[in-house]
Design goal:
Blueprint: E1 2-3, E2 16-20, E3 27-29, E4 53-58, H1 79-102, E5 121-127, E6 132-139, E7 145-148, E8 173-174, H2 180-183, E9 187-189, E10 195-200, E11 206-220, E12 225-240, E13 249-252, H3 260-264, E14 271-275, E15 287-292, E16 300-303, E17 316-318, E18 320-325, E19 328-329, E20 348-350, E21 357-359, H4 361-374, E22 379-380, E23 388-390, E24 399-400, E25 403-407, E26 416-420, H5 422-425, E27 426-428, E28 433-436, E29 438-440, E30 446-448, H6 450-453, E31 456-461, E32 466-471
Parallel strand pairs: 2-5, 6-13, 7-12, 20-30, 21-29
Antiparallel strand pairs: 1-24, 2-4, 3-11, 4-15, 5-6, 7-13, 8-11, 9-10, 10-11, 11-12, 14-15, 14-31, 16-32, 17-20, 18-19, 18-25, 22-23, 23-28, 25-26, 27-28, 31-32
Length: 475
Amino acid sequence: MESLMIRRAPVVLVLVIAIMFQTSTQICLGRQIPSTGISGRPNDDETSTTQEVLKSYWIHRDHPDSPASAASAYNTSSHSERIAEATRRSLIRADYFSRRVLDASSSENFDSPVQAVGGDYSMAVSVGTPPQQFIATIDTGSDLVWLNCKPCIQCISPAPDSPFDPTLSSSYQEASCTDAACTDFPSTCVDTGACDYTYGYGDGSSTSGVVAYETFTFTALDGSQIPVQQIAFGCGQNESLNGFSGNDGLVGLGLGNFSLPSQLSTDFSDIFSYCLVPFVDTTTKYSTFYFGVPETNISIYTPIVSNTVNPSATYYYVNVTGISVGGVSLDIPADTFDISPTDGSGGIIFDSGTTLNLLTSVPYEAVVGAFESQFNFPTVSNNASTVCFDTSSTTASTIVPSIVFHLQSVSGAAPVDFELAPENILSPYSETVSCLTIMLIDSSPSIIGNMAQANHEMVYDRVNGQIGWASTTCT
């Protein structure tokens, strides 16, 4: 049980990255996120030096300081409208996950989600020789790295930057038909020897272009540059993407062979972590992201579970053994979150790119029913797709029932607890209404989204196949 403090007229966040590398000295990307009058950004010289760690700062996609904000409706939309848009994105994303797992041809479809699984966060990337600068969506639910590229038949518009120009880069190299980067993609080799790719989506979106290799360059604080060569990426030349504007491409952090972590794992420890500020925080703009061994004392871990029926579903599945609300264990069948041995459906994943927490009917009804019975505020009807409450009489002493996901421990002993604090459970919809961050979905997998992960230090230890966390203050 914890107390709830309702913030009035909050500003919605959705994060953007400015990435940094560190070797024996701290290293940062050669691009700073453009903005006018940004304040409160951490100073690079105030951070500690850690060997082989990539560090970045994240800010929400709809924040006015985000490079994507010029292409968004942030300045003209209300808080409730932005919540509704985040809800829409979460549902579309969940639908794509389900389609991809169940699609009989999914093993031939590279995990390159756009609108359907486009994440809430973006990162600054520096590509080519000499480097060209871009802003790309980052996503734990996908693998492919791709950017707008010239010659552009139809590229993302509006976008923060001009498309990548291969003719200006001495390190650009198209993949040959025999390269793994071509044979492992759903690609087609043409008469010219180029390895072309095309990805289509259930909502009608598509992206296509050429599979290529490039150097991703990172710049040290002392001005020296750290090039990472031969990164396979999609040089996108024809993009038909619904609702995907304000970015130059996408960078996947999934478990597939061509995600950024997988391609950097030979140079850095195959671990990444982040600490997200609460969704409604109006004072702290930036969250942190690390790639490499983090400075952490995390001791709580749960195994990453493989979808053996569909290995191409390279999501971060975990094994939830139960859920409690307000300290009361719910009557949810033990196999509710199992992955189906028949078609690979089901399961539950941690996902940084989904805003809300999405549950299928059995756990959803149990959680919401228990919460409503313990939270003594009237429900209200509005345009939100989640259960909302009239919290106009809320005080600092108001008790919000805790919600705890019990997960399998790495040792196989007693389950470990992933606990949601009040700010993970309720989101202000207006000055007098707050809504649950938990939503019903018809399809699977279920999703523990970024609102639940806020104020948790999250560690994706891909070396040991486990995810760890610790409750903290990310602001």
